[in-house]
Amino acid sequence: MGPASLRSTYHVxxxxxxxxTPRLPRLHSPVALVSNGASLLARWLPAxxxxxxxxSERRRANRRIWDGFHHHxxxxxxxxxxxxxxxxxxxxxLYLFCRRVDTxxxxxxxxxxxxxxxxxxxxxxxxxxxxxxGHPPDGTLWPRLADVHERFELAPGPxxxxxxxxxxxxxxxxxxxxxDLLDYSMLVGGSVGAMMLPFLAPERRERLDRPARTLGVxxxxxxxxxxxxxxxxxxNRLYLPTAWLREAxxxxxxxxxxxxxxxxxxxxxxxxxxxxxxxxxxxxxxGLAGVQxxxxxxxxxxxxxxxxxxxxxxxxxxxxxxxxxxRAYTSTGRKLRLVAxxxxxxxxxxxLGRMADDGRRTADDSAANA
Length: 370
Hints:
Layout: H1 3-13, H2 30-44, H3 57-72, H4 74-80, H5 85-112, H6 114-132, H7 141-152, H8 156-170, H9 178-195, H10 197-200, H11 205-226, H12 228-235, H13 242-247, H14 252-257, H15 269-291, H16 296-318, H17 332-340, H18 344-369
Helix pairs in contact: 3-4, 3-5, 4-16, 5-6, 5-7, 5-8, 6-7, 6-8, 8-9, 9-11, 11-15, 11-16, 15-16, 16-17, 16-18
């Protein structure tokens, strides 16, 4: 990507989603200019720069949706700015639906208990069905989701799959082996990939369903790798397969013993994480190949989102595989570099080589002191 492309990327990232460029009205006097000044600013400037009272109710709702999207997912909201303007806010709206379901499986489960959260999940499913029939409940999310469905004809199946993934969590079902890992990731990640197709390639949904789901599964596996410590500490859940841990001579209790900050990760644990990342990387390769089959204007945003998310693997490696006490994240500067150049593999090999050298030095020091 050359300088012109980078300038274009910066321009896209610097503009708010779905803010059309208006035509300047003809003003005949300074008085008219003053009286119309607030209206002009409200039409021209991004919503986040303006006092809420200057915005129409719809733009205030737009701002709430986009701010929620940005707050909960810096990576996806950044990548969404690289999509065509007409789909950015619909993507943000769909993300907030997904976030609502996740909140029921996570925060609400521990605030009110799994049984009550399951009841609330059933109510959410009823609200979803009513919304898809054109009768949305009141609030910010459901009427806007109904608008999105009217414009893009969302497929109900993936939306319901996500809810089934939440039921998996709320029913206390664990992850015993790789098959469970992939089944769960398909419900909560592959479904999201399929949900995106009405925005990205409405005429190619059936042909692109498999690669879209594959990329969604890859991203969910990255989530699992990143959040092991957080899931154990805050949700009392573990998504790494117990069979993998057992083969490495580990158990959940071993991992819990290393949750306090400053405690080294247990021996064998890095190999378990590398195994999970290899499974994810294979799906990133397949999913990214499918991105080439999207319409041209859609490729940059989806490719960038995948690259940014996959880079979390390298951040886990750079942290010495300590995802028990530390949360890996990719810096904004690194994300922007990945938009222009995919150097994930080169950095991965450099990190793996450095850790191998550190291991050899440690072994040599131990032998010398024996």
